[in-house]
Amino acid sequence: xxxxxxxxxxxxxxxxxxxxxxxxxxxxxxxxxxEQARALALRLSQEKIDAFYSSDLARAxxxxxxxxxxxxxxxxxxxxxxxxxxxxxxxxxxxxxSERFGEIISKWWNDPLSxxxxxxxxxxxxxxxxxxxxxxxxxxxxxxxVVIVTHGGAIRTIVASVLGLDLKNYAKLRMDNVSLTILExxxxxxxxxxxxxxxxxxxxxx
Length: 206
Description:
8 helices; globular; alpha/beta
């Protein structure tokens, strides 16, 4: 049985628009982000969707609730679907991080899997917990269609893992706010990438 997993990055936040690293900081959606989520909700409103899940952070949870509303479904929240914990980098722009943490961020760009972010995580930690959550959802909802709202880093690691890519290059995968990515699973851990980073609903919303 094919299991369709629709991965959605949360809508925009003020920190997104200001270029700040968010990580585990619980930043809410902006008005723009809510409008983006409503556009995707309209696109998905006629699809048969069996379940909705999200990261437990507000920006993902609210996006998922907007998407689930037309289907009269509740949202299951999982902390394993959170963005990478950026620790002391959260709330800073890339310029500010480079100025304050120049040596460590250079190491992180070259080897994020094993480089420990100050007071944060290694990318390997994110890979393990996100793929664990995905495999559990795929097993529970075999043969169904599931929407999962999570974060840019989380989706990149999931897609890179499925495709067998070198996760050191995960940041080279573009991931826009409220984009839709679809994976077609034929068993836990094994899937085909059907759609990636699609935002046509934002261009067609009017």
